[in-house]
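Thread: Modeling a multi-component assembly for a lab meeting

Hi all, long-time lurker, first post. My supervisor asked me to bring a structural picture of a complex we are working on to next week's group meeting, and I have zero experience with this. I have the sequence lines for every component (482 residues in total). Could someone generate the structure of the whole assembly? Inputs are pasted exactly as I received them:
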Amino acid sequence: MCMRVTDHVILGQDVDPKMIEITVDGQKIPAKEGEPILAALLAQEIMVNRYTVKRNEPRGLFCGIGQCTDCAMIVDGRANVRTCITPAVEGMIVETQYGYGGADDVK
Amino acid sequence: MLNKQLLIVGAGPAGLAASIEAKKAGVKDVLVVDINMKPGGQLFKQIHKFFGSSAHRAGVRGMDTGAAMLKEAEELGVEIWLNTACVGFFDERVACIEKGMPDGSKQIVYMKAEKIIIATGGQENVVRFKGWTTPGVMGAGAAQTMINVNKVKPGNKIVMLGTGNVGLIVSYQLMQAGCDVVCLVEAAPGIGGYGVHASKISRAGVPIYTKHTIKEVKGNGPNGRVSEVTIVEIDPKFQHIEGTEKTFEADTVTLAAGLKPVSDLVRLQDIELVFNGPFGGWVPTHNEKMETTCPGIYVAGDTTGVEEANTALEEGRVAGVSAAEALGAISAADAEAWRAEIWTRLDGLRMGPFGEKRAIAKKEVMDAFPGVAEA
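Re: Modeling a multi-component assembly
Sure thing. I ran the full set together rather than chain by chain. Output:
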């Protein structure tokens, strides 16, 4: 189910948003150009962004404004990118982050 | 190293208002930095009309206030760097800034600022219960950002913890976005926010459980997402009353348990702080110019104590005028008169049954001010 709000009582409808494609863990998903990566993920009901260092527990959206780092993922090879404040760009490669996101941090 | 007359950290209502006022007062070189992708702080997710008198933009939606301020700042030539974090200061107001570049990369910039205004806002409080880290448990503000700014639902079936104005308003806005709000849960014996907001929730047929809290959240949904929420009645000492549990199917829990000031940058400086409960924790003391104990560093907005957007905006104006005065852009007498006008409006915002507590808290914070340290 797509989680986008397409017709809002106050905000109205989106006027022709430019749609792009990003790749998340090997799957291509649509995104609105410039929206936070996290929003594109939520639209597809992808809630888990990373797994913790010590206990390998899932984490997802928590503060939504760049403060808490729970939504950190690997973006275009860079680890610890806060997806709630990073805009989606055509062709971006996004990966779930395990631990610190380094080569030694395996699933 | 770059030089700036005035560096403002935070492009929310306080920071933007400060930049506008400083520019109007004749400061040439005003830079605002913000970690977010867009300026405006939390104003753009406030899609409801604010209360108050017409002098305080009552009846205007927060997002429209944000748009108007942004336009004014741009017209006045305020420079704004987005995706940019001020990570700390060296002595003599040298800021270390991680600047967001157009290609998405970051560049470290050192900047000597003659005056600095810190307006870094607030941060949501967390409530810890069994399962509070389960994906799908989030701040009410996070949910609000998703529905109102990004227009995407954080989930379908939502339990809201907290019935202050944030809890009530965000619950209603979640319904406007098409989410099913299962119930609201409140530890206190009564609803925390305005009756006018609470009645919207009640009219929609959504139950509000006072004297209750969340006992446990289970994460048996897809990839460990929230699947059910158990609430429990609590006694006057906030202890769970066994046997009163109720369990709801839900995929999202939103926490609206107040906010605390974001004071990281303030703490990095030799600025005197004071603890203030109603304001959400440790806050910098300041004088009527919004200047801290550290010369040349000013504060404004939720960083100085959590209140609301219009108050933040007016405090930002005070800080902007004061910085302009200190930079020699306007005379002391003109600045004094300008500030007096703003303080009258601030006093107006801190009246009434809800505002009075904030007036007392602000007085405590300012009474604790020992004076600006020798430069």
